[in-house]
Amino acid sequence: MSPRAAYVHVPFCRHRCGYCNFTLLAGRDDLIDDFLRAIEQELSWLGQPRPVDTLFFGGGTPTHLSPGQLDRLLVSVLRWFPLSEGGEFSIEANPSDVRPAIVDVLSRHGVTRVSLGAQSFDPAMLAILERDHSPEEIHRAVEQLRGAVDVIGLDLIFAVPDETLDIWQSDLQTAIDLRPDHVSTYGLTFEKGTTYWSRLKRGELRQAGEELERAMYAEAIDRLTAAGLEHYEVSNFAAPGRRCRHNEVYWTGGEYFAVGPGAASHTGGVRRTNHRSTLTYLKRVLAGDSPVAETEQLPPEDKARERLVFALRRLEGVDRRQFAEQTGFELDELAGPALADFVKHGMLEEHDGRIRLTRAGLFVSDGLWPSLLADQRYTARG
Ligand code: SF4
Fold first, then answer.
1. Are 203 and 149 in contact (CB under 8 A)?
2. How far apart are CA 102 and CA 66, in angstroms?
3. Contact indicator for 163, 194 with CB cutoff of 8 Å
């Protein structure tokens, strides 16, 4: 069966924020028209329109395109990935790009969900993060989007260098006062290859302490859930009925199409990842060559392990019987010793055949996954 989800990667931003290592070109708007031609070319290789239930435009910053360019992109994508009745159409947006002409393009093409890269409402934090929008622009963007799309999501970052618990509490309160339908929140990470990484190494930036970062995450959980948002995935909160359906396809091991530089698809049991370099992607596609850089067919056991981790990141956890039916692997066969150990130490809990993260487990979840992804039988033997 053809996948019912599609991702489109738009690799342009005005400038590159210091912490960002996504696939994108900053300040190369001269290449946007080539990109639009390349996407049209790549889409044409689908052979026929593929109706989908969820469509997600990420980046980079899709709204960095001019209204005319964005309109052209949406028209081409919707031609190849027509959205089913009641489908979810998400797009990531920079608050400073949200102006009437852009909102008009989004609502004309049936965008249902906008994920705003707010990150913080504190001018000093926004400056440290090298964001190019002001707190006022976030408020204005929310006002303009309200009524134009069904779901307004806010992305927030915590544990920014020099951030205090007070600043984060005030960010959370401001976000809640804006009545978002969805909040995604992550602790800042320093990725190799970013300017933040080099600055950290040179001692110019100070990473938040572990204790402070945990206190900030706890504040997020407590305040957002008290405001009526359901904590449904380690980093995601949603008002009732407002979860991100597209991300749930990833988290439940579903298949999806993907186009654009660096985009990774999962179709027919095969993962294909396009070239991460936008220039290489453009060169190849416009010359009529495949942009795929890596093809991978995961063995069923690795796939099952991956599915286990994604399932456990969701707060509803994993049902033993369902998991075995869907993957062909019993949980104990895959990761029995590790699961038992995490239950024993209070990181996971099990009730009626369903295993899920405990509150304590939420704070250390990243540290749990490696042992679930490794072969436990090997570990047990060796
Ligand atoms: S706006 Fe987002 S995608 Fe663009 S550089 Fe900044 S963090 Fe990266």
1. no
2. 8
3. no
Phi, psi of 211 (to 5 degrees): -65, -45
Q: Would you state the torsion angle of the CA atoms of residues 305, 306, 310, 313, taken in this order, to the nearest 10 degrees?
A: 60
Distance of CA 79 to the CA centre of its chain: 24
Look at the block and give the residue holding tokens 């945990």: 214
Quote the ligand 1 centre to 34 CA distance (angstroms). 21
Q: Whose CA is nearest to atom 6 of ligand 1?
A: 17
pLDDT tier for residue 331 given thresholds of 50, 70 and 90: very high
31 near 274, Cβ under 8 Å? no
The pLDDT value given to residue 374: 82
Q: What pLDDT score was predicted for residue 376?
A: 53
What pLDDT digit, counting tens, does each position of 99-130 carry? Answer: 999 999 999 999 999 999 999 999 999 999 99
Q: Is the CB of 59 under 6 A from ligand 1?
A: yes
Beta strands 25-26 and 12-13, pairing class: parallel
Query: Average pLDDT for residues 84-111, to the nearest whole number?
Result: 97
Task: Give the pLDDT of residue 296.
Answer: 95
CA 119–ligand 1 middle distance (angstroms): 11
Q: How far is CA 261 from the centre of its chain?
A: 16
pTM over 0.90: yes
CA pair distance 70, 64, nearest whole angstrom? 9
Q: What is the pLDDT of residue 381?
A: 36
Note the Cα 338 to chain centre separation in Å: 27
Domains of the chain from N-terminus onward: 5-250 (3.80.30.20), 300-381 (1.10.10.920)
Is the Cβ atom of 95 under 6 angstroms away from ligand 1?
Answer: no
From the CB of 58, is ligand 1 less than 6 Å away?
no
Cβ–ligand 1 distance for 94 under 6 Å, the answer yes
Structure tokens at 326: 């869907």
